[in-house]
């Protein structure tokens, strides 16, 4: 795939080659990652890179749009059919910009937004003080019940009545349970708010119908396409027909410039792939693998946030093991298992240290790992946690990791040979 770069820039070529090796020999368990099918790789680097285009089919700002029009029209049709949505915008660049697109479409500076706390499962783009939008809109937050560690719907309703937001957001980046979209939609309606669901993490599971869809209940649904959707680095927005024009305007010219036709082509392919038996089997297996990981880690004495998972995310509280998320993440990284440190609900530790890690099973499921292998992964994790700074222990864990993952190639042999 990189035959020209190899000659013109060996330095960049070798970085990409090393990344390929890293992914090949690592057990990737970052919950927001997946392994893009080869078609997604091909299309993401296609001839459409050369085309600059703004506007929508039938109302473009540049000429030469015939093929791009065909692509976008096909993609919108596929996205609508896949999710049962009344309207789809597939121009948006990513999950973050999908959220910005909705804000641009329906909010004015100073408007109020109610979303889930970042440290209990939400996302940076839902009003974190670190994100510039916190200076534009007024955010308030709901969270989880301290006992169940699941969304506290009663408190959410109370807050909604008191705060009177213009927009309520559900969905997050480290929430392992199903969300009652119907109930939150009703709450939004009762206070006259729009309801947006950010399904960035779970859109693959939703597409294949293995978990409930927010589409019937939300005014707007945003997503990235890199997580369980297993597609290119991009995003999309779904909405009710009545908001179609408003959303399209919020996307372009509201929040983006020219379309990225390369990743759009890869998205259009992915919308079809998501209807396949192969994709559905992977999504079903993700749910099984998530539950198996919960069981195995629990047997080893790890505490699982909220007790279980309903999706691809397993949130682990490390306090019973006496180590921080930071130490565990780094020790696992050194032996070839990639996870990320993450705050758990009501975490006494800072976001830079954390008491937990977030583990995802999408990539390993795509590679074919199942129950027996997950048992070994949990066992290796426990061995790492027992002595995360002992070089001999880590060396042994690294050997076990390499032995396990070597049996499950990332891509078919020879996929990247020039
Ligand atoms: C809930 C949620 N929304 C949005 C995003 C941002 O997606 P992207 O990285 O595609 O911009 C993420 C990323 O992790 C996420 O978890």
Report what the structure shows.
With 418 residues, this protein is an alpha/beta fold. The chain folds into two domains: 233 residues, 3-Layer(aba) Sandwich (Aspartate Aminotransferase, domain 2); 129 residues, Aspartate Aminotransferase, domain 1 (Alpha-Beta Complex), CATH 3.90.1150. 42% of the residues lie in helices and 13% in strands. It is built from 15 helices and 15 strands. A hairpin with an 8-residue loop joins strand 11 and strand 12. Helix 6 packs parallel to helix 7, helix 12 crosses helix 15 and helix 14 packs antiparallel against helix 15. It is globular and about 65 Å long. The N and C termini lie close together (6 Å). The structure holds pyridoxal-5'-phosphate. The site of pyridoxal-5'-phosphate has 15 residues, from helix 5.
Distance between the termini: 6 Å
CATH topology of the largest domain: Aspartate Aminotransferase, domain 2
| CATH level-two architecture of the largest domain | 3-Layer(aba) Sandwich
CATH C-level category of the largest domain:
Alpha Beta
Mean pLDDT: 97
**Beta-strand percent range:** 5-15%
Q: How many beta strands in the DSSP annotation? A: 15
> Structurally, how many domains make up the residues?
2
Tell me the major beta sheet: 7 strands, mixed
Q: Give the oligomeric state of the chains in this entry, treating copies of one chain as homo and distinct chains as hetero.
A: single chain
Shape: globular
Listing every helix as H and every strand as E from the N terminus to the C terminus, the arrangement reads HHEHEEHEHEEHEHEHEEHHHEEHEEEHHH
So, the CATH homologous superfamily of the largest domain? Type I PLP-dependent aspartate aminotransferase-like (Major domain)
What percentage of residues falls in helices of 4 or more residues? 40-55%
Physical arrangement of strands within the biggest beta sheet: 4-10-9-8-7-5-6
Give the low-confidence spans.
none
Structural class: alpha/beta
Cofactors, ions and other ligands in the entry: pyridoxal-5'-phosphate
Tally of contiguous helical segments: 15
CA gyration radius, whole angstroms: 22 Å
């Amino acid at each position: 795939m990189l035959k020209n770069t190899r000659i013109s820039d060996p330095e960049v070529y070798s970085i990409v080659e090393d990344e390929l090796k890293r992914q090949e020999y690592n057990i990737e368990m970052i919950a927001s990652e997946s392994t893009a099918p080869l078609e997604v790789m091909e299309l993401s680097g296609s001839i459409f890179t050369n085309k600059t285009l703004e506007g929508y089919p039938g109302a473009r700002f540049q000429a030469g749009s015939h093929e791009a029009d065909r692509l976008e029209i096909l993609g919108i049709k596929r996205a609508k059919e896949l999710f049962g949505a009344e309207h789809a915008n597939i121009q948006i660049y990513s999950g973050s910009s999908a959220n910005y697109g909705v804000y641009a479409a329906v909010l004015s500076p100073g408007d109020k937004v109610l979303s889930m706390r970042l440290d209990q499962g939400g996302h940076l783009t839902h009003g974190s003080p670190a994100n510039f939008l916190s200076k534009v809109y007024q955010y308030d937050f709901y969270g989880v019940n301290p006992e169940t560690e699941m969304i506290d719907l009663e408190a959410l309703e109370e807050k909604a009545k008191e705060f009177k937001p213009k927009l309520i957001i559900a969905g997050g980046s480290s929430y392992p349970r199903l969300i009652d979209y119907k109930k939150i939609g009703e709450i939004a309606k009762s206070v006259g708010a729009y309801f947006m669901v950010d399904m960035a993490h779970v859109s693959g599971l939703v597409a294949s119908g293995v978990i409930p869809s927010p589409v019937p209940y939300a005014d707007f649904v945003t997503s990235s396409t890199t997580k369980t959707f297993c597609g290119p680095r991009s995003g999309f927005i779904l909405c009710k027909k009545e908001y179609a024009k408003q959303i399209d305007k919020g996307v372009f010219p509201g929040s983006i410039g020219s379309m990225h036709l390369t990743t759009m082509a890869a998205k259009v392919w992915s919308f079809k792939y998501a209807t396949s038996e192969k994709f559905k089997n992977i999504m079903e297996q993700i749910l099984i693998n998530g539950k198996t990981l919960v069981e195995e880690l629990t047997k080893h004495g790890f505490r699982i946030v909220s007790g279980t998972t309903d999706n691809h995310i397993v949130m682990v509280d490390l306090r019973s093991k006496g180590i921080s998320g930071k130490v565990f993440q780094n020790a696992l990284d050194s032996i070839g298992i990639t996870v990320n440190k993450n705050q758990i609900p009501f975490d006494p530790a800072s976001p830079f240290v954390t008491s937990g890690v977030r583990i995802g099973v999408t990539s390993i499921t795509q590679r074919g790992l199942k129950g027996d292998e997950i048992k070994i992964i949990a066992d290796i994790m426990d061995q790492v946690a027992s002595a995360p700074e002992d070089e001999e222990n880590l060396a042994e864990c690294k050997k076990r990791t390499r032995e396990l993952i070597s049996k499950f190639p990332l891509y078919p042999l020879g996929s990247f040979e020039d």
